[in-house]
Amino acid sequence: MGPTNGGIATPALDQETPGILQRVSEEGGGYTFARMAAAARDGDARAAEAAREMAWEQLHCGPWHSVLPIWRDAYSMACLHVAKHHFALGDLSETLKVLDLGLIMGGSLLKVDFECAVDKVMTLLQLRDNSNNVDDQETNLLFSSLDFNQAQVLQFLPTKSLSSKLIARRSGLSLEGFLCDYYLSGLPVIISDTMSHWPARARWNNLEYLKKVAGGRTVPVEVGKNYLCSEWKQELITFSQFLERIQSANTSAVPTYLAQHPLFDQACLLTCNTFLFLANYNYCYAGGGDLRSINAWFGPAGTVTPLHHDPHHNLFAQVVGKKYVRLYAASLSEELYPHPETMLQNSSQVDLDDIDDTAFPNVRDLEFMDCILDEGEMLYILPSGGTTFGL
């Protein structure tokens, strides 16, 4: 019996195929896609690849928000057909890549098939790799734990950093104290002792461990100083390739950054390293309602997030390394000159590293709070203006 005997089961695809083909023809004009997808269902590998290329082109024909939802489901369908072909050939790495692309770019209609397929492929990959016995000792560190020199760091931070009002730090903060003193009062706070139980504190700095649990997964990364720069772009690469870029980063290299990505949906072991061990997890539900999202930010020193505001309350957990964070009150949003373009209205035109005093004459005098967030600390951030700088 071969290691991939039995193939990939796709019950959702089998059930939803007639509806997807009908909708993609009627709503998206994808008659050729429907013919190719029908042939792919009958085992035609070339037709499966052709269908995937057609759907990919539709996903990139304009702004993401203008893409018809049916084309996202169509792309998912084509990815499953292509993945089944690679799986049958025993090419597990390519199978996993195609599945990840479907998860990242496709719709949610067939998500259950993707998740089951990924679980099967990951299990087989782990069985094939006899060198995966990686312990939790920090024998191959991704980030160095050299002594931190704040005076040197200040030379690279925006003007007036750490000279005004520092964000409060609290140890042993109860849920009641969090609600009364910060959440209801509308104040940020650093909670300094809620992550001591996280295995991620050690494992996420272990290069071999990260490669073991997520190395083959395809992730979207940002390349460039930040998303407001003209040279900024996005790429899809494996997590191992991303880690290699971090290792080879230097002062002249263009940084590569994994930002606001649901990495934990892809690599469940990373989730077990963190949230299942989180003390006082009720902080996340202090305001009632559902948890909106759990995302990962991962990058080299020098990574900068521009001044921007988020629509939700956030708990930002610093697992490895340090990060400078500056926060402005929501009432100062207009004085921070938001971009007029619809897609960037939550971002400021002000570059804190090089403030244009003629265009933005009052920015230097605006009050702010800031801090250097250390490993093992968690920052509560209100929906307000802020920026971060990776150290």
Can you give a write-up of this model?
It is a single chain. With 391 residues, this protein is α+β, with helices and mostly antiparallel strands. It has two domains: 11-128, no CATH class; 150-390, Cupin (Jelly Rolls, Sandwich). Helix content is 36%, strand content 16%. The chain has 13 helices and 13 strands. It has helices at 11-26, 31-41, 45-59, 69-88, 92-105, 111-128, 150-154, 175-183, 200-203, 207-214, 239-248, 263-266, 268-274; strands at 165-166, 169-170, 189-191, 218-223, 233-238, 256-261, 296-298, 304-309, 314-318, 323-328, 369-373, 377-381, 385-390. It has a five-stranded mixed beta sheet with strand order 1-11-10-13-8, with no helix packed on it. A four-stranded mixed beta sheet has the order 2-3-12-9, with no helix packed on it. A four-stranded antiparallel beta sheet has the order 5-4-6-7. The chain is globular.
What layout of secondary structure does this protein have?
Blueprint: H1 11-26, H2 31-41, H3 45-59, H4 69-88, H5 92-105, H6 111-128, H7 150-154, E1 165-166, E2 169-170, H8 175-183, E3 189-191, H9 200-203, H10 207-214, E4 218-223, E5 233-238, H11 239-248, E6 256-261, H12 263-266, H13 268-274, E7 296-298, E8 304-309, E9 314-318, E10 323-328, E11 369-373, E12 377-381, E13 385-390
Parallel strand pairs: 1-11, 2-3
Antiparallel strand pairs: 3-12, 4-5, 4-6, 6-7, 8-13, 9-12, 10-11, 10-13
Helix pairs in contact: 1-2, 1-4, 2-3, 3-4, 4-5, 5-6
